[in-house]
């Protein structure tokens, strides 16, 4: 029997899972670590915390399972995207990593846009300059910490630093590299033009691989720390969303997934490059060689429901505690009693500003149509509907770009709600499914490791062999038409309020 390891290096912690080749979980281990915020809007972590967490969790699953390490065929790495790791000539960390959610680089984004040109930047990197991406973080260090930048010889992402510690290799892969804003996304290689215009030395960047390719092998030192056999292959792996797409089987045209976590993601697979010239959605290389994905991101998805729960649902929280159930379960039951359209109440989920489709940090949340007939349960349902409509905005852009969506997978905390899944099915007017496995990114990169080790013929074949789905929720006849009327009101509100948002932000 052969086994595979998937390690998912997230922002709150690392989860490592040992699978058999049928995708069954043999052992799992999680280690958390801190995030540092030295100033408002800044976010950093110590890369050695990631490495220690990966080494510890791999050792835990190997020891807990009792599996012979010679039977572990490969290791796959998934990771938080965009986070900047800088190493000196000896491979030592120069400063804490600047994370994906760090917002200090607005001036550097302006610098990138000025030097490359907005349209040209989107043509090459498939995205406008954003504070979350890695290139602006590199320029920030150069502009503000020149003594550190002068010592820098290697630039890596979170999972790629872990790869270096496991294998001694400086490497990355196309899906994660796409989020650095230095990759020629259509051609799946570093962009000499962007690097030259930004004056970044290409030699500091790792070699770019496809996600299932073997990038290196476990060293003797890493073997001692992890319990893995020296020489075990480590594949490219993937950024977190690209890894989740493999873990949910979204690896062929027509398939997509919606994640309702703190933020919301709509992710669609595409065998052809598709770039939005307006920069409203992200196009990245995906974990399937020669393919891409297009992704819309909304910032206040599950966060909107959490905000409502924490401020208005104390009764439900207390009752749920007494019943031994999740408060969201009771909130779902209350929202089910409210008709579609929440009795003509519409919620805009822009409590953190918005990325897709508006790219507007100034917009804010709104309850529109509030009247004396409304109860908190009308407001509750309108929050769920508003988040669903924000995901629909992303779907509409993907369709506008020529992507077909026949089947939608639902992931994240929101995906566990039958009511929310039905809203998605009715609003998108397509089937919505969930996968039986809950391991997402860790399973995805374990399957990539299986492809690299020759266990599966391809990423698509790996998903066919392993990924199982639950019965779909289909649109209920008549419901799509009801949601459509409300969605059209929702869709018209942002343009009407855009200037008012600017006014409010200037006060």
Automatic annotation (TrEMBL):
For the keyword Kinase, the answer is: yes
Q: Which Gene3D superfamilies match?
A: 3.30.420.40
Q: Where does substrate bind?
A: 81-82
Return one Gene Ontology term, BP aspect. Answer: D-xylose metabolic process
The UniProt entry, under PROSITE patterns, shows: FGGY_KINASES_1, FGGY_KINASES_2
Q: Where is the Carbohydrate kinase FGGY C-terminal domain?
A: 258-452
| Protein name (database record) | Xylulose kinase
Gene source species: Candidatus Gallacutalibacter pullicola
